[in-house]
Hints:
Layout: E1 2-6, H1 12-19, E2 23-28, E3 41-43, H2 46-49, E4 57-60, H3 79-90, E5 98-104, H4 108-111, E6 117-119, E7 128-129, E8 132-137, E9 152-153, H5 168-173, H6 177-202, H7 204-221
Parallel strand pairs: 1-2, 1-4, 2-3, 4-5, 7-9
Antiparallel strand pairs: 5-8, 6-8
This protein binds S-adenosylmethionine (SAM).
S-adenosylmethionine is lined by residues 7-10, 12, 27-30, 45-46, 61, 63-64, 173-175.
Amino acid sequence: xxxxxxxxxxxxxxxxxxxxxxxxxxxxxxxxxxxxxxxxxxxxxxxxxxxxxxxxxxxxxxxxxxxxxxxxxxxxxxxxxxxxxxxxxxxxxxxxxxxxxxxxxxxxxxxxxxxxxxxxxxxxxxxxxxxxxxxxxxxxxxxxxxxxxxxxxxxxxxxxxxxxxxxxxxxxxxxxxxxxxxxxxxxxxxxxxxxxxxxxxxxxxxxxxxxxxxxxxxxxxxx
Length: 223
Ligand SMILES: C[S@@+](CC[C@H](N)C(=O)[O-])C[C@H]1O[C@@H](n2cnc3c(N)ncnc32)[C@H](O)[C@@H]1O
């Protein structure tokens, strides 16, 4: 399957899908930071990358600076940036047969619609809290894969300053490994199953014409 992880520099979700043997690509305006030797990464605007292949599944992590409730006190001074952020988010809603858009709790719940689900890292093996909304198109809800105790906000685990070339905000935005793995494990079989059904669906005209043939001609051959 062709999978695009839009707005991802860490390669976390991309590599989870590649480990399952699929053609997964990430895309970000900044370079890949995964350390993988030949990363499947497009360094460009994600809106362009949407046209690079026929994507079966797109998982998008659009920037949340002007959308998340945590930045609400600055909203009034950045109306234009917010409009652009909303527009960018909306580019992904039906960009592929199956889509997941990920963002923190924020204005998209009212500007677009309520998310299909809100997940936490502690549901996927990381003892931390960071409410993350998922808007899903033709994908099932993600099941908690490993619920753990000991929950503190992620901010406590990140020291300030640049580390490995990444700012604290960038490091905090990296998708949790457990969530990436759950997406690949749970959504790939689902998407593959439906891709097969759709292929079968293309044979429908044949079975339809076979039905028509049976109705129209078989009686003549019968008795
Ligand atoms: C919230 S972070 C997501 C990080 C991601 N979870 C990861 O693990 O790498 C949003 C990302 O969107 C990227 N971005 C911003 N505008 C973009 C655009 N037009 N096209 C592609 N990526 C963009 C930013 O550089 C940033 O890395």
